[in-house]
Design brief:
By secondary structure, the protein is mainly alpha-helical. 75% of the residues lie in helices and 6% in strands. Strands 1-2 form a two-stranded antiparallel ribbon. The longest helix has 79 residues. The N and C termini lie far apart (152 Å). 17% of the residues are buried. It is found in: Nucleus. Involved in pre-mRNA splicing and cell cycle progression. Required for the spliceosome assembly and initiation of the DNA replication. Its main location: nucleus.
């Protein structure tokens, strides 16, 4: 903590002891205008307003705080804001805050905290067991999100937490459904480029990888889909080639008819002419015999 931080905090503590709330507010305004990224200071300021019963100002301070572009440890601020709403039994507000937080950070710890909140804080006197579908929906959303992002370690951590939840509060079927998602851990090796190797060859290191059952099931289906798509593309090309061949064949057939028809006609005409000539020759020979 730098001297100016200690100075501000010292003055604020003094004014709080004197119950000079307006002076405390003034000091916090100056403090945070000087260091707007101090999440802990924003939280303390909001708690001052809550301590005097002004929840509107408390929420207003939290809203200004989470809107800051550069915050030191923003998770502290979000957690404090959510905890205040839970303590005030404003569960719908807390739920909205979790949803807003997930739009900014899809970290595995946020998903797990959200699921635990959903089970532990039922609305309007609901039985906790009635929240089970909502809890499972959050776990499922988190699992799908981490799967899409390729976060295998976080995904494994989430599904393990989900399994422990089902062991405690679920039934045999729900537990079996989650256990079907448990990954298999395998050791792999990868090449690591370093200065010692001069950037050539590198060194090998072992690491743990996770093989998820649904990924392994999906991979053959994906390969089959790719093969089917490739076959369809080839068929399209084949049909185009076949059409071209048919058109060429039709053109050749038309040319053959146009070319051969006259030839065949001429041949028939020549044959008829030869037959007529032979008939005349035979007739003339017969007349000559009669004259003789």
């Amino acid at each position: 903590m730098c001297p100016k931080d200690r100075l501000f905090r010292g003055y604020i503590e003094l004014e709080l002891k004197l119950q000079e709330v307006d002076r405390v507010r003034m000091l916090y305004e100056k403090y945070l205008s000087w260091n707007a990224g101090n999440s802990a200071a924003w939280v303390r300021y909001a708690h001052v307003e809550r301590s005097v019963g002004d929840m509107d100002r408390c929420r207003g301070i939290f809203e200004i705080a989470i809107g800051q572009e550069a915050l030191e440890m923003p998770e502290i601020l979000w957690k404090a804001y959510i905890d205040v709403e839970i303590e005030e039994e404003e569960y719908s507000r807390a739920r909205d805050l979790y949803e807003r937080l997930l739009k900014r950070s899809e970290h595995v710890k946020v998903w797990i905290a959200y699921a635990r909140f959903e089970y532990g804080n039922a609305d309007n006197g609901e039985d906790a067991s009635s929240r089970l579908p909502a809890v499972r929906a959050i776990f499922s959303r988190g699992y799908d999100t981490l799967r899409r992002k390729g976060e295998k370690h976080d995904r494994a951590f989430l599904v393990e937490t989900w399994r422990e939840f089902e062991k405690s509060f679920g039934d045999k079927d729900s537990l079996a459904a989650v256990e079907a998602k448990i990954p298999r851990m395998v050791k792999k090796r990868r090449r690591v480029e370093g200065e010692e190797s001069g950037g050539v060859g590198g060194m090998w290191e072992e690491y743990n990888d996770y093989l998820f059952p649904d990924d392994e099931t999906e991979r053959p289906n994906l390969k089959l889909f790719e093969m089917a798509h490739a076959w369809k593309e080839k068929m399209k090309l084949g049909l185009l080639d076949s059409d071209d061949e048919d058109e060429d064949s039709d053109a050749e057939d038309e040319g053959t008819v146009n070319f051969k028809a006259p030839v065949e006609g001429n041949a028939e005409g020549l044959d008829d002419g030869a037959n007529s000539k032979r008939k005349r020759t035979d007739s003339e020979a017969s007349d000559a015999d009669e004259d003789s």
